[in-house]
Amino acid sequence: MPAESAAGQAGPTTAPALGAAELDALEAHWRAACYLSAGQLYLRANPLLRTPLEPAHIKPRLLGHWGTCPGLNLVHTHLNRIISAWRRPTVCIWGPGHGAPAVLANSWLEGSYSELYPDVTRDEAGMDRLFAQFSSPGGVPSHVAPQTPGSLHEGGELGYSLAHAYGAALDNPDLLVACVIGDGEAETGPLAASWHGNKFLDPLHDGAVLPILHLNGYKIANPTVSARMPREELDRLLRGYGHDPLYVRGTEPRDVHEAMARAMDTAMERIAGIQNAARDAGLGERPRWPVIVLETPKGWTGPATVDGVPVEGTWRSHQIPLAGVREDPARRRELAEWLLSYRPEELFDERGAPRDQVLACVPHGELRLGASPYANGGLHTRELPLPRLERFAVPVPGPGRSRHSPTEVLAGLLADLVAATAERRDFRVVGPDETASNRLQELYRATGKTWQEAVLPVDEHLDRHGRVMEVLSEHLCQGWLEGYVLTGRHGVFSCYEAFVHIVDSMAAQHIKWLKTAAALPWRRPVPSLNYLLTSHVWRQDHNGFSHQDPGFVDHILNKSPDVVRVYLPPDANTLLSVCDHVLRSRDYVNVVVAGKHPCFDWLSLEEARAHCARGAGIWSWAGSGETGREPDVVLACAGDVPTREILAAAALLREQLPELAVRVVNVVDMTRLLPREEHPHGMPDHEFDALFTRDRPVVFAYHGYPWLVHRVAYRRAVHDQLHVRGYKEMGSTTTPFDMVVRNDMDRFRLVMDVVDRVPGLAPRAAAVRQRMADARSRHHDWIREHGEDLPEIADWEWQPSSPGPSGESGRQRTDAAGGSA
Amino acid sequence: MPAESAAGQAGPTTAPALGAAELDALEAHWRAACYLSAGQLYLRANPLLRTPLEPAHIKPRLLGHWGTCPGLNLVHTHLNRIISAWRRPTVCIWGPGHGAPAVLANSWLEGSYSELYPDVTRDEAGMDRLFAQFSSPGGVPSHVAPQTPGSLHEGGELGYSLAHAYGAALDNPDLLVACVIGDGEAETGPLAASWHGNKFLDPLHDGAVLPILHLNGYKIANPTVSARMPREELDRLLRGYGHDPLYVRGTEPRDVHEAMARAMDTAMERIAGIQNAARDAGLGERPRWPVIVLETPKGWTGPATVDGVPVEGTWRSHQIPLAGVREDPARRRELAEWLLSYRPEELFDERGAPRDQVLACVPHGELRLGASPYANGGLHTRELPLPRLERFAVPVPGPGRSRHSPTEVLAGLLADLVAATAERRDFRVVGPDETASNRLQELYRATGKTWQEAVLPVDEHLDRHGRVMEVLSEHLCQGWLEGYVLTGRHGVFSCYEAFVHIVDSMAAQHIKWLKTAAALPWRRPVPSLNYLLTSHVWRQDHNGFSHQDPGFVDHILNKSPDVVRVYLPPDANTLLSVCDHVLRSRDYVNVVVAGKHPCFDWLSLEEARAHCARGAGIWSWAGSGETGREPDVVLACAGDVPTREILAAAALLREQLPELAVRVVNVVDMTRLLPREEHPHGMPDHEFDALFTRDRPVVFAYHGYPWLVHRVAYRRAVHDQLHVRGYKEMGSTTTPFDMVVRNDMDRFRLVMDVVDRVPGLAPRAAAVRQRMADARSRHHDWIREHGEDLPEIADWEWQPSSPGPSGESGRQRTDAAGGSA
């Protein structure tokens, strides 16, 4: 089949894009990459087939994927060509992550591999290592991975390439981000939504994304939807996504090279046209960016048939087209034939190095895809100009005297940060249409929301250059931010707590990336990925059961402790302090859970800083009877609503059982509860025991699923005395206090827990218990009649234990007991 | 703006679709529904405004969403019309789940509400209750939810409506599934992918899906992408998805009714044409099904402006357009004006019942949307004709003598089940392109893979009517299966274990649905949603780190214990027994984790059944020195690879420390480890203690994250003696045994754990420890040299402790100790 290259609607042009020498060189480069790809799959010795292939030359286990490699090699070869011609910084997102042999081959050819891994030299010995290490014990993974030069995307879990590409292109006006999308990946939801990234790409300040949809026709075992749908439907679909498609299709390599070169040239010209127009003449309507549709056979140039069954061009070439090569001499001959069909002697010199012709298209220095500093984002990272927190901190005349919405307070800091980075353009806030709902709307005094479509008079805050990105897709928010931070910039993802589970798997993959990257000396630390989870489980008054899920923390805490951090600030000032910390951090995934509804202010900024530095501490002003002796009971809390209920319980106990020595402990950093061996923030036992005692009853009100506290604390001495209240899957609820009552985390229940657990309280315990039970029934009846919480609940305020003349006594400083972190 | 209705490419027709009386009736029904929707948001008394509106009539908290209601009311009204005309069973998936007031209003109007909730009568008193209960304590949620008649989809978390619609339509050839997709939801990934559901819908055996994309222009705070993109792009996009669009657009109600009636008529005619053609003349190419694009203002007919600011037609009408109504008399007048603009006196008679004109379009009996038996799927559920397991069970002459791939064995059962339901068509297997990769390919002896696109000679197993559904989208697999089981049919979702996290949030929402539905007496039990998680964490030799994640079990076990079940069968026969059980179950989410690689057969079918019935039990044949006394150590295991390693450790201990009394316990049902109060399967303490002892060291090899075992067992007496090995986030690995070594779950490490924990073993402990450490280093060096596991590992087999003449002695029956479940 001859290749076609249809340059959009204008119809194919006919003048050749390539001179004969250039075509020969591109073809040689591509053959070399294909040879090296196949070699990695099969060989552990004799890399240039200088001697007849023997069983000992073959890997004992054949673990890799051939199907996608020839297409990726074609793309890489032609990216080399246009990078050399346009001298434009470029990264490529390799969606088909199984195509590591291709990307590694190209990196080795261009020399970037040997620069990062000097033992894998660009000669026969290095080729031998390149082959042997691939997907072998102690070697490199078979996916494009952090170990792969030039990569910022692992394709193991499919669906995120195009979102990553957009994230990388944002605020990098000179950058070209090519993105190879496999036609398998194209079936996923996140990828399907990602096409609309072009509605958010600012041609003035952002770089260009060039999607290359690779139709190789098959997944593991099936044809793909996009390869098999009628061509006119695919064309409509891509135009419906707002793209202007260019088609390259063929099976004859030289024809395809010609067509691909023409399509690449056209794409580059169109991109330049769009950007020049925007940058010279100002922004017009949203541009129609090019997309290349590349249709080549799966496993192209591999064995056409095996035992008479078609392999090339079918799903059978997805992984290892020829199996049993070590054992079967006939298969071994087929492999040798296949490998020699690339004519390695023309491609590599006697030392095993690539010949000049092979390298003719390869760009130099940082323009090489494997050497792009954009793909090692930490090289570009600048410290954020974080404003002084004093500007935003709320005054706290005494604990529990005032209320503020923590996220509203934080919005001031974020707005200032946006303003301070207005020129640098290296900080963004993403969220699924919830920035204002999450009470972060003060951001709009500093910026607008990115939007490249038409703007109507009734719209607010839409801006072609806005720093807030809103789209109703958690997948896109996450994918964009991952691409953004992996290229060295900073950001926050603000999300409804329940719906962040939508990106559970993406978060896990990002954590795995960071974990692996941190072990590579050449990878520089990148800004952390920061979640602000709000509209949380305890305040879903009108949204109900479907909006209640505090389990993201559980998911995250299953992952690498070197990477994950979890914070539950109890009020506005602690939220400020926590966010100041996480925005300075590197290489972490920080999860910050905070409410948007007004909640009591407990700590001044200074106290909040000290408390956050420790991560957990005794609030001695909230306890009673702490006179150096061990308390009778510890009331512990983590999260804003649990903290309120624990303090209300402490107040009730002070009133009902004044002789009881009660200690209140608040936890901000959940990982402090872990053993030191399990997390770098984990407390040593002596510190834990100093906070929680070794043997007193501990009643712990926790923001999420209660067993998480047991899971982090099960090795502690006091564990057998630990009683945790938290969220249970109880169904809908419709007033704020009813939510805590239904989950048995209300002040009355907590007091009942205490009287049930502290020995020696009978007979008074029964009376207290009864009063608490009465209060709970009163609440139940009241809300059904009035639709609102009891006034004594709604209007409850913390009272200092012994108010003095200034109204400030009874307030003691946040205690440092147990602190050492 | 006059309404347009463009009937696809043919251009708009002009003859009116509606006579004047019919138009009046439709308009009256729609006004009634809008009145009732607004009433639910605001009123707790005086539902027909028979007296002037007073503060006491207004709800104290206004919790609901108005914006989407008028559009949903329009759709419901016109669905009523075509259902009456075509008498075709219909369900509607209400994507904008916040639109519960609309769906509840319609259900009350048609009478289905009062039939299910007799206290909410179709008169003024019932209207009063309808209003008062909405989003109020003890009332009904503000989302379309299980409580909502006719619903099988909760829109709290957006993105799944269209996948649910396709799932409901499968194998229901007479059913019409209308599906309202909000333009906010349309931005999500799962929804974007769901449009391709038409590539899998068989016009012969499946019903029709009629998507209605509702462009009301705004999300919470932003314009929507699909409402703001140029119309010709949207048209291309929908045609690219394979649909034939019909447009309805307007702001004048009567014009819109006319246009909507015409579009609905056209859609129904086209659907009938497609289905008749397929059923009479045979299948041609994939049909282009209609889609309706309905463009009406957000908050249509609500307050146009409030304080001079536009509200109708903007995002400001998303929730409560008029706030402060209770406090502010002027606002209250505006509300009264708004409500009276619907002319309730024309709509409801003196008793408060809807007048005849209002009900003229409403269908009768089970044709009413709120009374459809399809939306209460348990009414249609039939027992599966499960074949006898003996047909598929593998013979087990003795434990560990043979190996089988558990999933391959299971495939036989699934294939037979497909064959046995070939006529009934109520069982499907879904998966993301992995059915064969997961070694379930025997299914293809009984059926093919659903595929409505072209089929090429090289393709295999594609079939217009196949019972296996493969698409590279876990979201679609999950969404389809949810729709399928909620309409009463059966299915299995086979998935790579790591990537099932992609649907974490969908699974959680389905569990919440089941939990809520189970409490509603009128909802009948539906078949369980069954996960077969395979290609699991311990065998990702070539896929590496990105494919390692056993955390779905943790996620699931956070959810309602009434609904969730988790099974880890250790071999082929136990997998058969577990699957036989889960396929018979109702209203659960069953998670079954099983390997696809050959693993040792431990139990005969009979033993497997007994073991699965208990869920956990002592394998006395694997232990040593059990002579009635308590063991010195308990070796426990859950999962196929952990079971192998524990048994290998037991064999090593028998050899190295023959005097040690070792008990081996295997756990199939993880929820048995929970306390009885926390899960219906939970063991009472005496049973747990009989298995694990109260005070002996327990070394537990677990399939997933080790702390899960602590989380389920922390209340047990033996907990302080419990030492768990499991998966850690360690990065890539490339041989099967290296995986367990790197995670410290290998036999040698387990033996070291035992010698470290059993008191009194010194001085021999040190020597054993050293031998184990030596074996581990030998392994490390060997795989680096040979690329494969040590022969002593690869060829290891279980040896009975004292082989007798038949080779069968030494084998004892699976012990019943501790069993009672």
From TrEMBL, chains A, B:
The keyword Repressor does not apply. Residues 21-379 form the Xylulose 5-phosphate/Fructose 6-phosphate phosphoketolase N-terminal domain. This is Probable phosphoketolase. Belongs to the XFP family. It comes from Streptomyces qinglanensis. It comes from the Bacteria. Its EC number is 4.1.2.-. The keyword DNA-binding does not apply. GO terms for molecular function: aldehyde-lyase activity; magnesium ion binding.
